């Protein structure tokens, strides 16, 4: 019997080649899209799963007035290990600044370094391929590097016990080589140094409960009550955190290691950068839902195409029932045919996946591979699921006909069947229109981001890192560069404008209310900074070389800082930080240096007295150049740098590119949205073509009679398409509120957002309607141009 089913299935595939091809291609596109999303979701959910202790490892998260972040004092870890019995071990992680590494003639910037406690290598599974993990971090002068870094500086030589010079001063000994980190780790680094180094370099910071500059990881006992431990942590911390910080600190909580990566709402960026990567959990949920919807659309498409062919199989079903076939046997036959089609589509989908995967990896920023043998079960389940979803309804529908009716060729007129097909088409196009609307809104938001007046000039601004030795000769370089007519201005800042170095609360200002505290970003800049970036000074003046006192006692505030402090007529008022006091000389317009996800924060600017010292780790030189003389300006910057700083690598970037990187996740979302819009429309159009074929097949005698009585092609095409237009219009009314709700939630993540104009939804509807009309019109035109003799010859 099985062999007979298989033979019949192949005969039907070959007999109706066009229907079979459309059905298989539609399923293959849906399967390929689902597999690609499945690979991405699987990779996202498996981050950090390779650690043996993953189930008992937790990260300490701080909740403060600014939100959630992964910062904590250095003293927290030792205190918790000493006072909470359920804490087995801890490690602290501190992000190192960008450093200059030199070995022989190899000299490069390295910015992916961390300082950790020795237990780091036992808590996490980052195996050493050279050296002893038990002793590699024993001495402050030791360092562990990755295999890639070892190859970079030492080639094929054994790097153990060799030295690397850092920032042209100290030499460190290579005590270990760690295996290159897997991409599935939220912790990312190229070299590790021991925590004992900080005890020498910055003892005041690591012994200060108010210095939230470290990330603390805990290993708990397997039977530990996580919530109870979090309560104990807060009791310990509340008794030690300095009173001025308590109004801003809310509490600590514990985050399991498996949640660290999917926590984009947690600020993982320490004041010198970030050693972790994170993704938004909602993005994973959204893509998982898209995968399910695309798979469902493909199944609906197959259902419509299968029912469209029902007219050609009525006699087959009737004869089989007359000779004794049961309904269960017929259902098994049709589901088996669906399984065969699904299997062929699956093979085709794998070919599509292999062709698309390189581009998909480029867009997603991953290195995904399809492991058919190791992870074959999900793919088998996908085929079986599609076989059941796509084949069960047509099987039940086709096997339900009575033999007498099928042999009289009366079929497909059930009102329930008509409504079911209409519902499927409406569902398909509602999803497609919602996706088009969503893609349009993503486009508008990205356009809004690119066109919004940010309050500063980001085009034609080159920034050059001057951390360490580079800042020593800053003034000389500035004077040399300004001799080039294509260089309009040169200034400096203690960090890249799109980042912030530190946020403080202990400011003093005139008219300050007792107990009032405001979180403000303190930023050091050189003279000409506001002029170089075209930042408007709306009150008072900017820093000036003509006023020597500016370097000692002048401050410039932005509008938000003035608003939150409550200062009236701020210029001339007294202002002070923890180490500098003076007066406010100017107020600048608010500038959106950060992502538009965030509101503008209060900012306080002061002049850096010693750029080499204050910008030691993260300082940048900002060079404003002529757009028409870009090549000459860049060549001049490089030549001046190499002449004055021959022992420091030259590196430059454009400020507008740094700003664009803030929206890399949104850009990926836009590309993926566009892709799935195309997929959904293709599948929906194929489904609609199937339904149009079904309708044309059912009404072939009617069309023949109409043409015999004189109806023209236009009249018949309109008659066949008007019902489908109604269905697509109905789909619009379902899709619009759905798209508005989902995209409104997405836009809420932006502090500054575009509107959702009505026309974006109507354009999506019209686009879907046009594509639907093209699909239906083509089939209707074929039916209308059929010779009426073909339709009436059996009457």
Explain what the structure shows:
This protein is α+β, with helices and mostly antiparallel strands and 795 residues long. The chain has three domains: 2-42 and 282-449 and 664-792, no CATH class; 54-260, no CATH class; 461-625, no CATH class. Helix 15 runs antiparallel to helix 23. The longest helix is centred in the middle third of the chain and has 38 residues, at 327-364. The protein starts with a helix and ends with a helix. The relative contact order is 0.11.
Protein topology:
Layout: H1 2-15, H2 17-45, E1 57-64, E2 67-69, H3 76-83, E3 87-95, E4 99-103, E5 106-110, E6 113-116, H4 120-123, E7 128-131, E8 142-146, H5 147-154, E9 163-166, E10 170-178, E11 191-194, H6 196-201, H7 203-206, E12 215-220, H8 226-238, E13 249-256, H9 257-260, E14 266-267, H10 281-308, H11 314-322, H12 327-364, H13 376-399, H14 403-407, H15 415-451, E15 461-465, H16 474-481, E16 487-493, E17 503-504, E18 508-509, E19 520-525, H17 529-532, E20 537-540, H18 550-553, E21 554-558, H19 559-565, E22 574-576, E23 581-588, E24 603-607, H20 611-614, E25 620-625, H21 630-644, E26 653-654, H22 655-660, H23 664-698, H24 700-708, H25 713-747, H26 758-784, H27 788-792
Parallel strand pairs: 2-14, 6-11, 8-10, 19-24, 21-23
Antiparallel strand pairs: 1-2, 1-12, 1-13, 3-6, 3-12, 4-5, 4-9, 7-10, 8-11, 9-10, 15-25, 15-26, 16-25, 17-19, 18-22, 20-23, 21-24, 22-23
Helix pairs in contact: 1-2, 1-12, 2-10, 2-12, 2-23, 10-13, 10-15, 10-23, 12-13, 15-23, 15-25, 15-26, 16-21, 23-24, 23-26, 25-26
